[in-house]
Amino acid sequence: MQRIIATWWPLAASWLLMSAEMPALSAVVARLADPEIHLAAYGGVVFPLALIIESPIIMLLSASTALSKDWASYQKGRQYMMSAGALLTILHILIAFTPLYDILVRQILGAPAEIIEPARIGLKIMLPWTWSIAYRRYNQGVLIRFGRSRAIGLGTLIRLSANGLVLISGYLLRDIPGIVVASSAVACGVVCEAVFVGIVARPVLAGPLKMAPAVQPPLTWRAFWAFYIPLAMTSLLTLLANPIGSAALSRMPDALASLAVWPVVTGLVFMLRSMGIAFNEVVVALLDEPGSYKNLLRFTWILASITSAGLLVIAATPLSRIWFGQISGLQPDLVALAEQSLWLAVPLPWINVFQSWYQGAILNSRRTRGITESVVVYLLTSALILGGGVLWGRITGVFFGLAALTLSMVTQTAWLGMRARGVIAEVRRRDYGQQASLELVHKTKD
């Protein structure tokens, strides 16, 4: 357990700090001019589109943690990272700076007219986002693989510091539009973090990684693609839920209010979910070690219970009103909407921890097809629920959005559990077999 906690807490601290980004953005934008419009522009258009663009590289953290065991393997992954970063940045330019934006946002997403032009500006400012994240996540995986995960938390702190400087400047100046402040803060933060991670990874690349024995058999491009393509499809399909959700919320009652509340509510929920998301890389890194099964499973139950209990306490007490009203700065009508919708998200932290347990086990085995299958299940469930909300057209969109998110994650996690059953059974037999062998040795000595 001590080893698990030592590996987990720097990653959890990093995810928690990173999850504070959205609440901080929302709190500042909510106090600038036209907050409802700019919150909806960022949370309903800019952020979902930026996530979709980066989706082919978002799983580089897991891939690097699993595969960067020697220099040759690292080099293969790095070549993919740099090529994908360049191509996706070109795609970002095409979407943000050409008429393709109008097709996507006006016709496909059906965004409210008030947020279209502010969102266009925000998406242009976010241009450095994808390549910076590709570089940062790939090198973070190397740090985790070689026991340097504490540096990741420091990198996130640097990212938040850069965010904070931009946000504070925007708040004090007052006359800068909220979407410009938010997008500039995020872009500046990811660039600063990428630079820092690249610097701290250099000694690991030059030392432990280069000196690591060559993996046998060597990682071939065929093996790399067999491992990574299902992960890239997984992230693409997962992140498709964001623009689908924005399109659905834009077509339900109280669209502008729902889109404005969405990033604030999901930002709070993500702070609790982040603790479980960080557990994914812990399972990938430690499941190979003898005796890991029992304590990893015990940690799963403990972490799931604590994080969901935390969100339940917030939803059931005046803490939610304090968070949405005084800290996030929402108007009273939006505070009430946020408080009511938060209850639908209470199970999410619990689900995320178990999802990381099952997904980490599958990643460790390198048989990643089951992860892609689970995301198809997630996407279908979400589309059915959101489609029902649009057709019914009587309930405020944010309620359907959060219900879709929660139920989709339930079905996804159930599928992951089914697909991980064989891997977990193998690990359990390994550990129990080793334990029985040790007991036999002790009896023989006695």
Characterization of the model:
This protein is mainly alpha-helical. It is 85% helix and 0% strand. It has one domain (2-213, 220-445). It contains 19 helices and no strands. Helix 7 runs parallel beside helix 10 (178-211). The two termini are 29 Å apart. The mean pLDDT is 87.
How would you summarize this macromolecular structure in one to three sentences?
The chain is mainly α. Helix content is 85%, strand content 0%.
So how many helices?
Answer: 19
Query: What's the end-to-end separation, in Å?
Result: 29 Å
Percentage of residues assigned to helices: over 70%
Q: Work out the radius of gyration.
A: 22 Å
Number of strands: 0
Strand content: under 5%
Mean pLDDT, to the nearest integer, reads: 87
Q: Please, how many domains?
A: 1
What is the multimeric organization of the chains shown?
single chain
Any low-confidence stretches, pLDDT <50, length ≥5?
Answer: none
Q: What structural class do the secondary elements suggest?
A: mainly alpha
